[in-house]
Amino acid sequence: MSNITIVAAEEIIAAAVKNGQALGKAFSVAVVDAGGFPVSIRRSDGARPLTPDIARAKAYTAAVMQRPGNMLKKWQESQPVFFSQLSQLPGAAMPIMATDGSLTIKKDGEILGGLGISGGTAEEDQKVAEETLAALGYELEFPAWGVAGKPAGRD
Fold first, then answer.
1. pTM assigned to the model
2. First and final C-alpha spacing in the chain
3. Beta-carbon neighbour count of residue 13 at 10 Å?
4. How far is CA 126 from CA 31, 94, 105, in A?
């Protein structure tokens, strides 16, 4: 398993802050490695005080669940008890947040970590996260999983 480097994390954060500034927003941006451990976190001037913690939880979710947060929404809605218990596990470092602005960092099919952005609306957080990773050549496509229904290919 590879992890995101500090150089790559700082590149992502700088690009995300710049994209946020273009929207006139003060964001906090967090990048964690594939295990959910912090690599770099930045709170832009003017970003609200809780945004770094929210960004870190979003990044953690994307890394340890190995899917962007918004892909987890239906799964969370269908199994709320399961999701509430995830954050209570002894090894859980952060809450699991199935929300926008939470993207898995993936390149060449390998998960390297997670990106979390907080400070705008849910749509703005998601837009900045997607535009940032896409511009830097990271993959944004993930197969669906964890949703109610029969597994693919089964009758």
1. 0.89
2. 34
3. 24
4. 15, 20, 14
Q: Which of 106, 97, 93, 145 has the alpha carbon at shortest distance from 1?
A: 106
**Whether 151 contacts 130, CB under 8 Å:** no
Inter-residue contact 103 to 130 (CB < 8 Å): yes
- Name the strand (E) or helix (H) holding 126: helix 122-135
Which residues pair with residue 116 across a beta bridge? 30, 102
For 26-73, what is each residue's pLDDT tens digit?
999 999 999 999 999 999 999 999 999 999 999 999 999 999 999 998
Q: Give the closest residue to 37 by CA, choosing from 60, 12, 18.
A: 60
- Please check the confidence at residue 82 and state whether its pLDDT lies above 90: no
